[in-house]
Write a structure and sequence with these properties.
This protein is an alpha+beta fold and about 325 residues long. It contains ten helices and eight strands. Helix 2 packs across helix 8.
Length: about 325
């Protein structure tokens, strides 16, 4: 991808999603990329399936874990036999309920069970983060779209070009991603003002498919052109078929209250952006336990990162807008 393409995309993506409350003065527009990062962070930490759950074992630490589960009928008689031939590798991550508290994030190194095997506790940051997003991304596409929907409800009526594609059809148990011949998935499409066709796509739950689900510049989500999205999906599946397309709203569900709370928190974080920063890669907030790191070159935009790993990962995108490059 050329720097001209990235700069062109950035101008498109940073076209503001207008936001203001009817009872207050208008807020500055929030770039769609920033909105996506913050919504994705809040969605992950609010996932009730993993509240109080910590990682106890994983094939990342023990490649023989699945073979050693010979007595697990669900795994060996139901799940694995339906695995498509195109699936080359299966990952298994086992979590255990440790408390009723909100589970931390990979950046806080707070997702591993304290009684987990030493090999699990020694997993490097990159694998901890991948496990975190593989698990939180599962079955999350409609919740992700609902997040945008509730955020837009906080704004005055505007034409967002929001479209939902696909079928509109508690904690514990087994969740499986990618072991069916076919599976439904939805992403959010945006059209340029005055245009009827979708120009670019946002998909914040692609990481459920592992490294193949990253954005074109290594992001934890996809934000790019429609053509680019189709190309990116070639890394995930053999073929993609459009089964539904049109403007609609996600119907209320058991997740609605939680998604509304997430959207409200993002609104508040944006309103308090001058005093409360966030990681430009994952959306994590500043805290006494984890102080944000500032990009030393960016004085006006105040680009921050929660850890060295995210600062390095975010450079693939940030290098196109870093103030150091403008000098």
């Amino acid at each position: 991808m050329s720097s001209d393409q990235v700069e062109s995309w950035k101008k498109t993506f940073d076209a503001a999603v207008s936001q203001q409350r009817t009872t207050t003065e208008a807020s500055p527009p929030i770039p769609l990329r920033t909105l996506t990062i913050l919504l994705n962070y809040e969605r992950c930490i609010a996932d009730l399936r993993f509240r109080g759950c910590k990682l106890f074992n994983s094939t990342f630490a023990d490649p023989t874990l699945i073979d050693n589960m010979a007595s697990d009928n669900l795994m060996h008689q139901t799940i694995l036999p339906r695995k498509p031939a195109s699936v080359k590798q299966v990952h298994l991550h086992a979590f255990r309920i440790e408390s009723d508290q909100v589970t931390g994030t990979p950046s806080t190194n707070d997702i591993i069970d304290r009684n987990a095997p030493l090999d699990v506790q020694a997993l490097p940051f990159a694998q901890r983060e991948l496990i975190y997003h593989e698990s939180r991304g599962h079955d999350g596409c409609y919740k992700a779209i609902e997040l945008y929907q509730h955020f837009f409800e906080l704004c005055p009526p505007v034409s967002t070009g929001m479209k939902v594609g696909g079928s509109t059809s508690g904690k514990g148990g087994t969740i499986v991603t990618g072991l069916d011949q076919e599976s439904l998935h939805s992403a959010l499409g945006f059209a340029a003002p005055g245009m009827g066709n979708v120009d670019f796509v946002v998909d914040m739950t692609r990481m459920q498919w592992g490294e193949a689900g990253r954005g074109s510049l290594g992001e934890l989500y996809y934000l790019g052109s429609v053509a680019g999205y189709y190309r990116a999906m070639e890394n995930v599946c053999d073929d993609i078929e459009e089964v539904g397309y049109g403007a609609t709203h996600v119907a209320p569900s058991i997740h609605t209250d939680a998604m509304k709370s997430c959207a409200s928190r993002v609104w508040e974080r944006w309103e308090n952006r001058d005093t409360e920063g966030w990681c430009d890669y994952c959306g994590g907030p500043d805290s006494s336990e984890r102080r944000l790191l500032n990009c030393s070159a960016c004085k006006e935009t105040k680009v921050r990162y929660c850890c060295k790993e995210h600062q390095k990962a975010g450079w693939k995108l940030h290098k196109f807008t870093c103030e150091k490059k403008k000098k």
